[in-house]
Amino acid sequence: MSFPVFVILTAEALFALWLLNREGLLKKSSYFLSSLILISAAFLFRALALDYRTLDYEDFLHHWVEFFRQNSGFKALDKPIGNYNVPYLYFLALFSYLPVNDLHMIKLLSILFDVLLAYGVMKLLSLTEKSPLALIGCFISVLYLPTVFLNGAVWGQCDSIYVALALLGIYCALTDRPCISMLLAALSFGFKLQAVFILPVYAVLWFMGKFNWKHFFLFPLFYVILVLPAVIMGRPFMDTLTLYLNQTGSIGSGLSYSAPSVFSIFYKVSNEALAAKIGIIAAFVFMFAVLGLAYFKRRELETDAVLWAALLFTLGIPFLLPHMHERYFFAADIMCLLLAFAVPRLAAAVFLSQFASFLGYYAYFNRVYLLTMNYGGWAVFLLIITASVFYIFSLTKKNLKKFEI
Q1: pTM over 0.90, yes/no
Q2: Among residues 19, 49, 153, 353, which is most buried (max CB within 10 A)?
Q3: Which parts of 145-236 fold into alpha helices (H)?
Q4: Geometric angle at alpha carbon 109, from 114 and 146, rounded to 5°
Q5: How far is the C-alpha of 88 from the C-alpha of 148, rounded, in Å?
Q6: pLDDT tens per residue across span 213-257
């Protein structure tokens, strides 16, 4: 590990500790010492993983950084490169200027957002839970969650970026900061299309009275501003604005790519095109059913209902859609952890979600299945049923912490 990488990684660990201290959670010396040790260990594990190279890095990310390096960095933003939206390409272009291993920089970016992800989850929990020990435990648990560690520090993926921004956006909405919330939602969507799995919760927040219709005009405005640097560099405006639409043909035709979706359970179908269409329709029906219940109970909506709805969206939409990858349940993994801290009886949900996601991650890293993915699919299905029950109870104002399963 080079000295600059060591400095950045250390700074990120200190940033995590600072965030906890900023919230006034480390006043007890025992809390401070425990947090220091656990955060240090979490970052030590990440340091040990920095040199691990995946096929995604070898075949794509490294070549994209090299493309920027050979074509004058930011000036090359006018050219179509990679299959990420331009906000992430800004960082790859920046890395091309640095005399540091680009693999390390890519992972350090994701690790930074691991910290912000932990902060976002903790802030959402703080709306219903005031115990410093629970809040610290939630923050640190995010850093230790297997799929969080594997996704960023090992794989070099950027799912922590869009999920962290989305959760912070939800927190800002719940604390009556609608403009900042819309900015964070646009940033989340700008970094990754999979933000659409969680963004329907903004309709629930609207029903709750956290937005008026005018605030929704901020989303496209912020998104245009976000992609504007690439347009200034010469990239066609409409091509940049509709980049996600142009990428839909590159997701593959398989019904499931090691994802614990419904297509991992019912994978033997004679007409895959028809099955894909049914899955898309089912996903929309599911989403509108969740929204319909929220609208019907809009005068009784509270924070817990918003969080349960977010969990249902992040579980149910990718579960029903075709062409899903193993990483697309990342937001669901995070929401399961958050709600397990809010309702401790649901701790088993974390293990179910991690089990389902880990099967896909294992298949990617080892090119062989530990167990067939239908086990993961059934685990997600069980989570959806459980979350649906808790969502309905949240709308009827039952005491979820005393609810017996």
Answers
A1: yes
A2: 353
A3: 146-149, 159-174, 178-191, 201-207, 218-232
A4: 35
A5: 19
A6: 899 999 999 999 999 999 999 998 888 888 887 766 556 678 999
